[in-house]
Amino acid sequence: MKNTGMVRNLDSLGRIVIPTEIRMTRNIEIGDPLEFFITDDYTIVMRKYKSTECAFCRRLDTVTYYHEQFICAECLDELKKGNATAIHTPAPVRREPELSGRKRGKTSDMLDRLKQAFQDNPGASQKDLATMLGISQARISQLKKELKL
User: C-alpha distances in angstroms, 70 versus 46, 51, 52?
Assistant: First the structure.
């Protein structure tokens, strides 16, 4: 095993945060299931969970591991014969023209919306603002820090 030198504390609910660097190098996305193992010397090992069901039909019998995916014999035969058909063709992506030459992110849009909400509702609480904008109170707090309020 490789020592990363990163240390994380367990919170009061028994959770730890996996550092971004490790998530990125191991291709772990938010919401991915993780598996835990305990070795003979009581080391806890964690890895991204890979189901052993067919990637196409979700059957569990006669699966073969091929190119980092499990595929059942029937689906594999269909792929070999070329009988696979597209079920869903994605629509082309339409891009809106940029107004100022720079791409605006979600944060800058949300900052504009928060400024407007402050102007329209000067006495609103953080909870009220969160409800109006459809975001969490914690996000309102983060945005207020960026606005230096």
Answer: 21, 8, 6
